[in-house]
Amino acid sequence: MNRTARTAALATAALAVVALATPSQAASTTGALMLTHVRPNAAGPDTLNGAQRNLNGEYFVIKNVTSRAVNTGGYIPDITTNTYGRALPSYSLPAGAKAYVHTGSGRHYRDSSGAHHIYRGYGRHVLLNTSTAKNPDLRLKKPGSLDNNTATGSITACNWNTAADGTTYAC
């Protein structure tokens, strides 16, 4: 092998080693999880005859951006116009997987298409249908952070302004 070819091969190998050592983090997160989508306004009316409707049609999507499973327990969804204070429940989200985090109740599971579903257990809609002057509308904070409408502890955020009925927005 001539010197030029050997130098090129060594440079390629060195770049491959650097690429393997680099964590697979997305630019819009500083943690293991990233907000990717939100559906703040479930399809249809939020209430009918005084009863909450379609709570699980309101959700946000998180992605594990690491190469290992991450327990979602303790991560704080901070809705910046209120302080509901309920941390995400414990669920082992595999490396690279996405999960729909639903507002209502249900059994956490992985569906046949590979999507994960996590339920927060609220008895009413909690995500804003219309935005306020606060930006972002939703932050995901690391475990142990306060749900206090500040950026402290934030790892990823999402803003959607006015939400159309049943529309999902990219973060």
Short summary of the structure?
The protein has about 170 residues and is α+β, with helices and mostly antiparallel strands.
**Alpha-carbon Rg, integer:** 20 Å
Q: Give the helix/strand class.
A: alpha+beta
Order of helices and strands: HEEEEEEEEEEEEE
In DSSP terms (H or I, runs of 4 or more residues), the helix count works out at 1
Strand order of the largest sheet: 9-10-8-4-1-13
Spell out the blueprint of helices and strands:
Elements: H1 3-21, E1 33-39, E2 47-48, E3 51-52, E4 59-64, E5 70-71, E6 76-79, E7 92-93, E8 98-102, E9 109-110, E10 116-119, E11 138-141, E12 154-158, E13 169-170
Parallel strand pairs: 8-10
Antiparallel strand pairs: 1-4, 1-13, 2-3, 4-8, 5-7, 6-11, 9-10, 11-12
